Amino acid sequence: MTANVNRIKRFLTAAGIDWVTGEQFEPRRIEDKVKTRLRADIDFVITLISTSGQSTWLRDEIADANAHDLWIIVLLENGASFDRGILGTLEYIPYDDEPDTTFTQVLEGINFIRAELSTRAQEK
């Protein structure tokens, strides 16, 4: 999983995307750390769901991001399951060890988000 996350970080950096993560330790409640990240000046969230299991917090984090009008890009490792709950129609990108297709779709999502942000900025 760590290798996949590092691959995604390198891809985002190469695409000119500044990213933040909650990986580092902070001596406070996890939900406070996550909510702080989701309230920061961000445009979208990428989550990677692996075959090793889905965090029990993940659905709450995705719901919180959705409630704050953030775009959500879900990468679902082949063979993993995603409990979507109230986000049942949320699209996801299949993810495996051959990331060419995956990263093309992630870039398509990023380009969509950039276009939407540009449109919104012009409307103001």
Short account of what is shown:
The chain is an alpha/beta fold and 124 residues long.
Write the layout of secondary structure elements.
Blueprint: H1 2-14, H2 30-39, E1 44-49, H3 58-67, E2 71-77, E3 92-95, H4 100-123
Parallel strand pairs: 1-2, 2-3
Describe the structure.
It is a single chain. The protein is an alpha/beta fold and 124 residues long. 46% of the residues lie in helices and 14% in strands. The protein contains four helices and three strands; from the N terminus they run ααβαββα. The protein has a three-stranded parallel beta sheet, sandwiched between helices. The radius of gyration is 15 Å and the shape is globular.
Give the tags.
124 residues; alpha/beta; three-stranded parallel beta sheet; 4 helices; 3 strands; 46% helix; globular
Q: How much of the sequence is in beta strands?
A: 5-15%
How far do the termini sit from each other?
Answer: 41 Å
Helix content: 40-55%
**3D shape:** globular
Number-wise, the strands total 3
Order of helices and strands: HHEHEEH
| Rg calc | 15 Å
As residue ranges, the low-confidence spans are none
Biggest sheet: strands, sense, closure?
Answer: 3 strands, parallel
Provide the residue-averaged pLDDT. 87
Strand order of the largest sheet: 1-2-3
- Secondary-structure content class: alpha/beta
Number of helices: 4
